[in-house]
Design goal:
Number of strands: 11
Radius of gyration: 13 Å
Distance between the termini: 37 Å
Number of helices: 0
Order of helices and strands: EEEEEEEEEEE
Oligomer: single chain
Helix content: under 10%
Structural class: mainly beta
Length: 127
Protein backbone atom coordinates (compact mmCIF):
# COMPACT_ATOMS: atom_id res chain seq x y z
CA UNK A 1 0.00 0.00 0.00
CA UNK A 2 1.25 3.46 -0.85
CA UNK A 3 -0.44 6.80 -0.27
CA UNK A 4 0.56 9.90 -2.20
CA UNK A 5 -0.73 13.34 -1.29
CA UNK A 6 -0.72 16.35 -3.55
CA UNK A 7 -2.41 19.70 -3.91
CA UNK A 8 -0.73 21.69 -1.19
CA UNK A 9 0.64 25.14 -1.80
CA UNK A 10 0.61 28.79 -0.82
CA UNK A 11 -2.66 30.73 -0.73
CA UNK A 12 -3.93 33.91 0.84
CA UNK A 13 -6.38 33.99 3.71
CA UNK A 14 -9.83 33.12 2.42
CA UNK A 15 -8.46 31.12 -0.48
CA UNK A 16 -9.01 27.48 -1.41
CA UNK A 17 -6.99 24.37 -2.09
CA UNK A 18 -7.94 20.80 -2.93
CA UNK A 19 -5.76 18.07 -1.52
CA UNK A 20 -5.68 14.65 -3.15
CA UNK A 21 -4.69 11.35 -1.62
CA UNK A 22 -4.09 8.60 -4.17
CA UNK A 23 -3.97 5.16 -2.66
CA UNK A 24 -2.02 2.48 -4.51
CA UNK A 25 -3.36 -0.83 -3.29
CA UNK A 26 -6.20 0.96 -1.52
CA UNK A 27 -9.89 0.65 -2.27
CA UNK A 28 -12.14 2.93 -0.27
CA UNK A 29 -14.79 0.20 -0.22
CA UNK A 30 -12.76 -1.55 2.47
CA UNK A 31 -10.44 1.16 3.76
CA UNK A 32 -11.14 4.10 6.02
CA UNK A 33 -9.21 7.20 5.00
CA UNK A 34 -8.22 10.00 7.33
CA UNK A 35 -6.67 13.43 6.89
CA UNK A 36 -4.39 14.65 9.65
CA UNK A 37 -2.16 17.64 10.20
CA UNK A 38 0.90 18.30 12.29
CA UNK A 39 0.36 21.25 14.58
CA UNK A 40 3.41 22.77 16.32
CA UNK A 41 3.09 22.36 20.05
CA UNK A 42 0.11 20.03 19.78
CA UNK A 43 1.41 17.21 17.63
CA UNK A 44 -0.69 15.38 15.09
CA UNK A 45 -4.41 16.03 15.03
CA UNK A 46 -7.29 14.77 12.96
CA UNK A 47 -8.93 16.95 10.34
CA UNK A 48 -11.40 14.76 8.50
CA UNK A 49 -12.05 11.11 7.79
CA UNK A 50 -14.31 8.97 5.65
CA UNK A 51 -15.40 5.51 6.69
CA UNK A 52 -15.00 2.54 4.39
CA UNK A 53 -17.59 2.43 1.67
CA UNK A 54 -18.08 6.16 2.01
CA UNK A 55 -20.75 5.48 4.59
CA UNK A 56 -19.90 8.40 6.81
CA UNK A 57 -17.65 11.42 6.83
CA UNK A 58 -16.48 13.26 9.92
CA UNK A 59 -14.79 16.59 10.53
CA UNK A 60 -13.12 18.18 13.50
CA UNK A 61 -14.71 21.39 14.71
CA UNK A 62 -12.05 23.83 13.41
CA UNK A 63 -12.75 22.81 9.81
CA UNK A 64 -16.47 22.08 9.84
CA UNK A 65 -18.26 24.04 7.16
CA UNK A 66 -14.99 24.87 5.41
CA UNK A 67 -13.51 21.50 4.39
CA UNK A 68 -15.25 18.77 2.41
CA UNK A 69 -13.94 15.26 1.92
CA UNK A 70 -15.03 13.13 -1.01
CA UNK A 71 -14.13 9.92 -2.83
CA UNK A 72 -13.32 9.52 -6.50
CA UNK A 73 -15.43 7.30 -8.75
CA UNK A 74 -12.44 4.97 -9.07
CA UNK A 75 -12.51 4.62 -5.27
CA UNK A 76 -8.77 4.93 -4.93
CA UNK A 77 -8.51 8.68 -4.40
CA UNK A 78 -9.82 10.82 -1.58
CA UNK A 79 -10.08 14.56 -1.96
CA UNK A 80 -10.29 17.25 0.66
CA UNK A 81 -11.60 20.55 -0.60
CA UNK A 82 -10.38 23.30 1.70
CA UNK A 83 -12.23 26.61 1.50
CA UNK A 84 -12.02 29.84 3.47
CA UNK A 85 -8.51 28.98 4.54
CA UNK A 86 -7.03 30.67 7.59
CA UNK A 87 -3.40 31.23 8.64
CA UNK A 88 -3.90 28.70 11.44
CA UNK A 89 -4.51 26.03 8.79
CA UNK A 90 -0.85 26.33 7.80
CA UNK A 91 1.01 23.06 8.32
CA UNK A 92 1.76 19.70 6.69
CA UNK A 93 -1.28 17.56 5.89
CA UNK A 94 -1.12 13.77 5.75
CA UNK A 95 -3.58 11.16 4.59
CA UNK A 96 -3.77 7.76 6.19
CA UNK A 97 -5.54 4.48 5.43
CA UNK A 98 -6.73 1.56 7.47
CA UNK A 99 -8.56 -1.60 6.45
CA UNK A 100 -12.02 -1.42 7.93
CA UNK A 101 -15.36 -3.17 7.67
CA UNK A 102 -17.15 -0.48 9.65
CA UNK A 103 -18.97 1.80 7.25
CA UNK A 104 -20.00 4.19 10.01
CA UNK A 105 -16.76 4.84 11.84
CA UNK A 106 -13.29 6.24 11.21
CA UNK A 107 -10.77 7.41 13.77
CA UNK A 108 -10.23 11.15 13.92
CA UNK A 109 -8.16 11.72 17.05
CA UNK A 110 -4.43 11.21 16.55
CA UNK A 111 -4.33 8.58 13.83
CA UNK A 112 -3.29 5.67 16.02
CA UNK A 113 -5.65 3.29 14.21
CA UNK A 114 -4.19 3.87 10.76
CA UNK A 115 -1.54 1.56 9.34
CA UNK A 116 -0.57 3.40 6.18
CA UNK A 117 0.54 7.02 5.81
CA UNK A 118 1.49 9.33 2.99
CA UNK A 119 4.51 11.61 2.92
CA UNK A 120 2.52 14.79 3.51
CA UNK A 121 1.84 17.96 1.58
CA UNK A 122 2.53 21.47 2.83
CA UNK A 123 -0.28 24.00 3.06
CA UNK A 124 0.67 27.61 3.74
CA UNK A 125 -1.94 30.32 4.22
CA UNK A 126 -0.62 33.87 4.23
CA UNK A 127 -2.31 36.61 6.22
Amino acid sequence: VQLVESGGGLVQTGGSLRLSCVGLGVNTDDHAIGWFRQVPGRGREGVSCVASGGGATYYQDPVKGRFTTSISDAKNTVYMQMNTLKPEDTTVYYCAAQISENHNYCELDFGSEYSYWGQGTQVTVSS
